[in-house]
Every structure is written in C-alpha cells, then in structure tokens.
Design goal:
Layout: E1 2-8, H1 12-22, E2 31-37, H2 40-48, E3 54-58, H3 62-65, E4 69-71, E5 77-79, E6 85-89, E7 99-102, H4 108-116, E8 121-124, H5 127-136, E9 141-144, E10 156-161, H6 162-170, E11 176-184, H7 189-208, H8 210-219, H9 227-237, H10 247-262, H11 280-286
Parallel strand pairs: 1-2, 1-3, 7-8, 7-9
Antiparallel strand pairs: 3-11, 4-11, 5-11, 6-9, 6-10
EC number: 4.1.99.29
Function: Catalyzes the conversion of cyclic dehypoxanthine futalosine (cyclic DHFL) into 1,4-dihydroxy-6-naphthoate, a step in the biosynthesis of menaquinone (MK, vitamin K2).
GO molecular function, one term: carbon-carbon lyase activity
C-alpha cells in the first residue's frame, strides 16, 4: 500500500475538512494518507522545501511553488465579506511606520497588508501569539487570523479589515482567497486524480454530516474552540464553497496573483486554471 503525506493546519476548518478521512468515512484507494498538522506558515515553508506530498498552503504562496506542485480544486477557504483583521489597542493612532505582527511572509493576508501598508515595520510570529503581542505593546498592531477573528480581547479594536483592503485592490466584488491545498507534481497523474477525488469527497461528506463530525471532533478535544465558536467558524471557512473551486473563486485567485505580480512579489503572472490537475485524463483513460 502506498503512503502519502498529507499536511494541514490544526485549525478548525482544516481539521473538519480532513477528518472524514481520518475517521474512515472516506478511504483513498490502495493508499494510506499519513496526516501531519502544523501552523499554516510552517506548512508554507515546508512546501517551499518540498517536504510533503499534499499540503495545505496560503494561496499567496502558490506562485512560488507552481513548478513543483499542482493546485488542488478542493479544501479551499475564502472570505466573503469577512476575513483577517488588523487590530490595535483602543483609542490609539497608528503612525505611518507602525510596527505590526503578521502570521507569515507567505500568507495571503501578509501579501495584501504589505501592498496596503508599504511603510509598516513587520515582524512575523505564530498567529496564536499576535493578540497578546498587541496587548503587551510589543507591536503597535497585528493581523488576527483563523478563530482569533471571532474572539479577541476587549482592549482591542479593528483598525481595518483585510476584506476591505482586498475589495479596494481588486476593484470589484470577489471572494477573498485565503487557503487551499497543493499536490506534488512528481506523483503519477492517475494517482494524483484519485487523491484529489478522495479529498473532494471528504470535504463533501464532512459538510453533509457537519453536526456529527463537529461533535466527534469536540468530544475528542481535537478542536481548540467551543461548540458555538466552531459552528460560526465552519460557517465562514468550511462550507459548500469549500468543496470545489468555482469560476468566481478562480477569478479571485487570478486577481490575487495579478496584484502580486503588479506589485513585484511574483516574477511571472499566474493563471490559476493552468495549474490544476488535468482530471479530464481520467475520462479519456476510461473510454
């Protein structure tokens, strides 16, 4: 039996979308998926170094790994009217060169922030430490991500929504691309198609059985939030729009990569549809 490493973050949406496989509800054909959980920027760095066969990444990372990894169509997270938040202490005014904590160099929120605030002094840290760093005054502000956007200290207030930055830069109403998954290109195509189909089915099954799966995750202490927060978070980032990329989501990805290229972060202009696994091969193979 083949063994394939599948890395995802320990965040509620990633765990929810993957654990239909972990619990045995969906089984890859003749393959054992070995899952690894790590924070998203660590996964971005690991993908740059080719560590895992299948890996969750920030969408902003993908142009840097496109030659070695194909973009998967499933297990995606987009914001739609919401997303990461730039927070500061209440009743404070940020200077032009304010010191800010971001969760990683290759995160989507990091890319959009750097475009919007070119003079800010950036320090990178684990996203779990950002809120406290702002409270302690280690930094003037910080971008909160994941579950942190739902519950943060009363001493803090939102300076700006990354969603608003995205809408201004995009120039039209598009969902905010946050995270997805990629697969190593050296994996034979027929296997790659099977693996992607397995993940698509897992996300579909998870969404169809949301209450059961959520209860199982909570009972096993696999989630770091309570039931109410989990429901809110999954409604935002693990839902029917996570099962398979839509045309609107492809357009949003292309706009993100266009912005990154325009502002000098990428060396070439990436069109997301050109970097997918050619799943049509399966239809031709079966004829």
């Amino acid at each position: 039996m083949r063994k394939i490493s599948v890395a995802h973050s320990p965040d509620a949406d990633d765990i929810f979308m993957y654990y239909a496989i972990k619990f045995g509800w969906v089984t890859p054909k003749d393959t054992l998926f070995e899952n690894i959980a790590d924070d998203i920027e660590s996964l971005n760095q690991a993908t740059l170094n080719g560590v895992y066969d299948i890996c969750a990444i920030s969408f902003a990372l993908y142009p840097f790994v496109k030659d070695d990894y194909a973009l998967l169509k499933t297990a995606v997270s987009f914001g739609n009217g919401y997303g990461p938040k730039l927070v500061k202490k209440k009743e404070t005014k940020l200077k032009k060169n304010f010191k800010v904590a971001l969760s990683g160099e290759y995160t989507t929120n990091g890319l959009l922030f750097r475009i919007a605030y070119p003079d800010a002094r950036i320090t990178y840290m684990n996203f779990l430490d950002i809120e406290q760093a702002v409270i302690d005054g280690t930094v003037d502000a910080g971008v909160l991500i994941h579950e942190s956007i739902l519950n943060y200290d009363d001493s803090l207030e939102v300076e700006r929504e990354i969603w608003d930055i995205w809408q201004e830069l995009a120039g039209k109403d598009l969902p905010l691309p946050l995270g997805g998954m990629c697969l190593r290109r050296s994996i034979p195509l027929n296997y790659a198609i099977d693996y992607e189909n397995t993940l698509i089915k897992a996300v579909h099954v998870a969404n169809k059985n949301k209450k059961i799966l959520s209860d199982m995750l909570l009972e096993r202490n696999l989630i770091r939030v309570d039931a109410s927060t989990l429901d809110k978070y999954l409604d935002l980032y693990a839902n029917d729009d996570s099962i398979s990329l839509s045309e609107l989501q492809y357009d949003a990805l292309d706009k993100l990569y266009e912005l990154g290229y325009k502002h000098g972060f990428y060396n070439s202009l990436v069109k997301s549809r050109e970097f997918l696994i050619p799943s049509e091969y399966e239809e031709l193979r079966n004829k």
